[in-house]
């Protein structure tokens, strides 16, 4: 990645800070990188995320002001995540075919939910998409619950713009953060999670509440780490399908 040449400059800028501050929060960088990479294609190298995350940590150490009344870990987490997401956007990590596959899975789940009145099982989704089950599961592993949005996502499958001007943020519109803090959205999200299949609910609980990594969740469920990745991706896609009106 392009981060290599920046490391020395940021290290020099932060060298007046106690070294223990950087070293103490390095595990935080690794934790945030692990959580993010679980939602990304296998082609994304976690070490690259950790590297840019350390840069974000150094920036946080340089900019942190205790007088603001915010804990350093909270402040640093925002900078670390921001550095990782910025690098992912610059590197254009998501192949267009993978984005297309993600949309197709979400559309299939949405249509089947309307038809069946319940969450479809994997074999039903695969059949609807006219795919063998193993190919559908492999597609899930590649998509990993896409969450980062590119401006190019507002193009059609041939790469042509689709009224891109309509997708530029309205300065008078509602901020995404405001939507997340809205009681109605929170209630809708809770309801959507309750409607997930039991196994998907367990994966979400272990990952987001208990903060287990994919390998640990696999040990709990008795499945492989790659299978947990597929289940996580499918759970996220189910939620995206049910919360379409909020996105």
Topology:
Blueprint: H1 4-13, H2 19-37, H3 46-63, H4 72-91, H5 96-116, H6 122-128, H7 133-143, H8 176-181, H9 183-194, H10 198-209, H11 214-221, H12 225-242
Helix pairs in contact: 1-3, 2-3, 2-4, 3-4, 5-7, 5-12, 6-7, 7-12, 10-12, 11-12
- The assigned structural class equals mainly alpha
Main beta sheet: none
Mean pLDDT: 76
- Helices, by number, come to 12
> How many beta-strand elements?
0
How would the global form be characterised?
globular
- Residue ranges: pLDDT <50 for 5 or more in a row? 9-20, 147-175
Helix content bin: 55-70%
- Beta-strand percentage range: under 5%
Order of helices and strands: HHHHHHHHHHHH
Q: State the separation between the terminal residues, measured CA to CA.
A: 31 Å
What do you see in this structure?
The chain has helices at 4-13, 19-37, 46-63, 72-91, 96-116, 122-128, 133-143, 176-181, 183-194, 198-209, 214-221, 225-242. With 247 residues, it is mostly helical.
Short description:
The protein is mainly α.
Name its key features:
247 residues, mainly alpha, 12 helices, 0% strand
